[in-house]
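Bumping with the actual sequence this time:
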Amino acid sequence: MITMDFMGQLGFSCIERIETGFTLKRKDGEIVGAFPSAKVSGDVRAIGPGGVTVHCECKYRPADRLKWSDFEKHQLDHLEAVTKAGGWAFVSWVTSLYPARLYWLQWPFPLKKGSALKAEDAAKIRVEHFGFHNPNGK
């Protein structure tokens, strides 16, 4: 996973994907669908410098905008809760895979209900506090 590789490059440790269990829907013994069994706290968790909790919500959106509507309420609530508790919360927005293009955004960032963050603006957001910057910034 691109995000997990990047988190390792940033020096985070114990990086692990948060698995979402799925419930299968069957009809006449055949699997006809699946849906998440529970809402999870994020997509990836890790340990940062000094033992700080790091949570990341990953979004793959091959477009030039990350929209408020791309997030579910529980995802936004968890980003807020991690930050409020003193942890580090990030959104990893991947817009292409080959070549990889990843915007690493510290929560909170300028995204409000009903709005969208343009890729050109995401490229300008710097994660100053931690001494590194968006890998796609210029």
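The tokens above came from a reply further down the thread. The helical segments are 2-9, 73-84, 119-122.
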